[in-house]
Amino acid sequence: MTGTAPEIRVSGLHKSFGANQVLRGIDLEVAQGEVVCVIGPSGSGKSTLLRCVNLLEVPTRGRVFVGGTEITDPDVDIDAVRRRIGMVFQQFNLFPHLSVTENLTLPQRRVLRRDKAEAAKVAAENLRRVGLSEKAAAHPASLSGGQQQRVAIARALAMDPEVMLFDEPTSALDPELVGDVLAVMRMLADEGMTMMVVTHEMTFAREVADRVVFMDGGVIVEDGTPDRVISRPAHERTRHFLSRLLDPAMAQVEEGASEPTPEQPPE
User: Fold this and answer.
1) How are beta strands 85-88 and 69-70 bridged, if at all?
2) What pLDDT is attached to residue 248?
3) Measuring CA to CA, how many Å separate 158 from each of 56, 186, 192, 197, 263?
């Protein structure tokens, strides 16, 4: 991390869907090269926050800055800003009729206007980075879920982003496939990539994140080092959430016995 201005700054962010208020005044900064993991129960606003950072969702109120540019300014060139932000979703969103290489070269050629040779070179380098060089000619249907997610990460990296956003990137994967995806994300963290990661992988958050943000009911309840937030949470809501993660049987009993509260609208 450096002493420069934050790479991401969110100020007074609110987001509502009709009468459903999902974000209730979020203030958050992410420094250049910092890894911030966002944790919290379903419906807490985590994914909505991430989607507001690259304006996939337009905030109801508040401001978002990326690299010093206010992307919530009506006059901003949002396409230019988005080119600096890579996003990886729960689902892989690969084109099934295209090869792995074609999935990586198509956005480069359409958005960055790279020629075929340059796009192919960048694609090959990023497939090497995620350990999938041998799958360059394969089609998504022949890959495991973990391999498809690594292709999705390589596709985002091929656009040369300054920031990477991950929205529960391992939640759709079988447990034995999670490790390879997290290993790629660890590599990016080691390389100094600025990252916001919505995740339920507490080991990853503890070992890789510079900070952990716990959200509940559309607000940030705790924000601190992984050791402080995960090992020594200050708030009862955080302690309750973490205890349920550590004891899935308890979580199932509680979910069956209680209805969602109005403070936890669906994201």
Assistant:
1) unpaired
2) 54
3) 20, 18, 16, 19, 39
Mean pLDDT by 10 residues, the chain (267 residues): 78 96 97 97 95 94 94 91 92 94 96 95 97 97 96 96 96 91 96 96 95 97 96 94 71 40 40
Hey, what are 12's tokens? 């007074």
C-alpha separations of 131 from 20, 87, 88, 92, 149 in Å: 42, 19, 17, 17, 12
Q: What was the pLDDT predicted at 247?
A: 63
3-state secondary structure string, 138-168?
CCHHHCCHHHHHHHHHHHHHCCCCCEEEEEC
Is residue 129 classed as helix, strand or coil in its secondary structure?
helix
CB neighbours of residue 258 within 10 Å = 8
Selection from 67, 42, 252, 63 nearest residue 163 by Cα: 67
Any residues with CB less than 8 A from the CB of 30 and at least 6 apart, and which?
6, 7, 8, 9, 36, 163, 194, 196
For residue 82, the model assigns a pLDDT of 86
Q: How far apart are CA 205 and CA 201, in angstroms?
A: 6
